[in-house]
Structure formats: structure tokens, C-alpha cells
Amino acid sequence: MKKSFVYKSHVVLALAILLNHSCAxxxxxxxxxxxxxxxxxxxxxxxxxxxxxxxxxxxxDAIASNGILFSNCVSQPLCTPSRVKIMTGxxxxxxxxxxxxxxxxxxxxxxxxxxxxxxxCIAGKxxxxxxxxxxxxxxxxxxxxxxxxxxxxxxxxxxxxxxxNGERFSNPLIEQNGTVLAQNEDAYGPxxxxxxxxxxxxxxxxxxxxxxxxxxxxxxxxxxxxxxxxWSNKEIRYKNDTTYFKDMVAYTDKIVGKIVSQLKKxxxxxxxxxxxxGDNGTHPTIYTVTxxxxxxxxxxxxxxxxxxxxxxxxWPDKIKKGLVYEGLISFSDFFxxxxxxxxxxxxxxxxxxxxxxxxxxxxxxxxxxVHYDPQWGKNVNKxxxxxxxTLHYKLYGNGDFFNIKKDVLEKKAIPxxxxxxQEIAIKKRLEKQLQKHPKLAEK
Length: 443
What we know:
Layout: E1 6-7, E2 33-39, H1 48-51, H2 58-66, E3 68-74, H3 79-88, H4 92-95, H5 109-115, E4 119-125, H6 145-148, E5 153-157, E6 175-176, E7 179-180, H7 189-203, E8 209-214, H8 245-265, E9 272-278, E10 287-290, E11 293-296, H9 304-307, E12 308-309, E13 311-314, E14 323-330, H10 333-341, H11 354-357, E15 368-372, H12 377-381, E16 385-389, E17 393-396, E18 401-403, H13 421-434
Parallel strand pairs: 1-14, 2-8, 2-9, 3-14, 4-5, 4-8
Antiparallel strand pairs: 3-12, 3-13, 5-6, 6-7, 9-13, 10-11, 15-16, 16-17, 17-18
Helix pairs in contact: 7-8
């Protein structure tokens, strides 16, 4: 997709073209609304804006072409580690205790936005009560936990009920504001969540609001959506088949369009920051054919396929022309950005990209650090690791050093005796970055 221009992380560009104060229809003193949408298991390659695939993502492509497309957003490799990091802005070694859990003593961006006077809601996948640790955790059944984390209203799957009690797509088992909704075999979970968000937006349009939507799409099981031909056959609505992945991507895009349409209808689109990202790479059973070759999903691994996720942002009031930002973004940066929007002094390990959204000079992030200890099954625990990376180089805690621009799949670490003077200097800088953090404990 063609963009108007590219903002390289090492070059300071004038971004006045993004601003057009004379045409602003809303008072500049009004704080912006914020909608943060996070797809489940969607790597960057799933958006046409990045890789020109056969997936249909026109709504997300429109956000990218009219807003900002971030080329290098780095997530955690797995769902809960990413959720904990994006919600608190802290490295996982500081507050990640169990898979599927976030301790009630943590301060989330829900708390941050509520404390700043925002109306807040969350819808979608929760998975933070610690349902797998009922013998260890006293608060696993606390249906008030979203409220404790700053959300006025919620509509969630996997709050106090596990997937064994009820699934997320057809005939979903959803808890909403303290009530377990009646199940309906013709209901579709993503529709329930997005309807809740649409209603919230219209009810709260006169006040600043914050919506966090951690989607259940496009996580497996890969099943028909209401737009799939096979949906009419109720017997196969949970038949897991990767063939349906493209339909799930298309439905994700459709829901984003539904939310944007409501923002227009409620006349709040101009002053709403819409953020779309993914929590980690695509499932490894998914192979995506792109203009640059076939990409296998790397969910759960520390490779680029496991941590390179989409990030597109729109804010019509401020961003007037499409922009590509090639600098690094860490998942801790989302909290820092919301902190900047609200002038909060909350602690964060991130760097705000709010200046970029406003057309101001953006602080360059030289590297991203990832501490990854999933604590969830041998298939993912075998990938536990620490690394720090720049745009082109990556250093692991064991000393393995890769040129990830030339060796995307990290097939062979660069031999020490073949490093150039420049690579030696980069490696030393990254070693110093790693030394700032406690080492990953041996198991």
C-alpha cells in the first residue's frame, strides 16, 4: 500500500502536515477518546497494509492509509504475557506471576483512564483471574476484578468460567456486568462484544471514554463466522479447520469497521484515537502467502514471527495524512502513551508515542527488551528467554547474536570472529541493556 511518506526513526521530520488546526471541528481542550483493539494471535502479516496477502482487511487498511502504520511493533510471544505488559506498562519479570492471571495489586491502564475522569469499559477475552490455579489463588472467582482494574463496565469471556464451561464463538458463554448472559446457539461472541461496545460509545458520547477490546478473534479453534457459507450448518460451527482463518480475519476487519461507523454516527470520530494491534504472532498452523513469500505463524516463540504484530492508529482530528513510522514500538509503550494523554505520573517501562500522534517530535526507541517466561506447558516454556533488539540486530541472554534483517528466521547466530567493528559496538550496547535487568532464572 502506498503511503504519503515514511518517518524513519533516525531522521527528524517536520510533521506539521499532520495538523490542520483551522479545520478542527472540536475544541482542542477536549481530551481525546481512546479505543484500543487487540486481536488474539494475529501477526503483522495478516494485514494487507504490510504484506499484500489474500486476506480481506479494507477497514484496517483504511486506518493505516489515513492514519499511522507502525512497521515494527514488538509484543510478547504469548497472550497473557502480552496482556499483562500492555495493561500495566511493565516488564513481565516485575508482575507476571502465572499464566492467565494478573494480581489485584497491579495498576492498569483501566485504572489510569478512570482516574483521569474517563468513562471506561472492556469487552472480549479476559483470562486474568487465574482460573487454572483455583487451589492457589483465592480471587480466581472474583467477577468484580475488571471493576477493580478500573473498568466501569465489562462484557467478557473467561472471567470466572473456563472454556470447558462454554466457548467464545458460536453459543458463547459471556459474563456482563456481574451477570452470566443466557447462551444462544445462534449468537456469535464477537458480535455480542462489539454490540456492547457500540452501545457504550453511544451512551457515553458526551464524555471522554476509553474502550479496551481484547478480541477473541482470530484465536483457534478456527471455525466458521456468520459470514461463512458453512455457518448455516450448526453441526460444524466448532469444527476446527485452518480454512476458516481467512474468514476470521475478514470478520475482525468487519468489526473494526462497525466500531468506526458507530463513532461516526455518534459524531465523536474526529476526536477519537483508534488503536489496533495484535497480542502476539499468528498460530504456527497458519501459513500466509505474501508478496515476499510464505510466512509461518510463530506464536509462543521469541522469533519475529512470534513477536512482530500489526499496529495502526487513526485520529482524524490530528492525523490528516497517511504516515509510516519505522521506529520500534514496545508493548510497554501503550501504557506510557495513555499516561501521556492523561498527564499521569504512573510508573511505566515504556516510551510514549503520543507526540507522534500529535505531529510532534517523537523520542527514538533504540531497542526493545523482552523478558519471556510463559509458565504454561512445555510447548511454550521451552521458548522462555530474554532478548534485546534494535531494528536490525537481536541479542539473547545466552549471547546468541543475530542480524534479523538478513536472518529473519534466526537460523544461525553470527560467529563472534566474523563480527564487523560496527556489529561489535552494537553487541556491546545490547549487552549493557541486558545487564540492566535480572537474568531469567534457570529451571
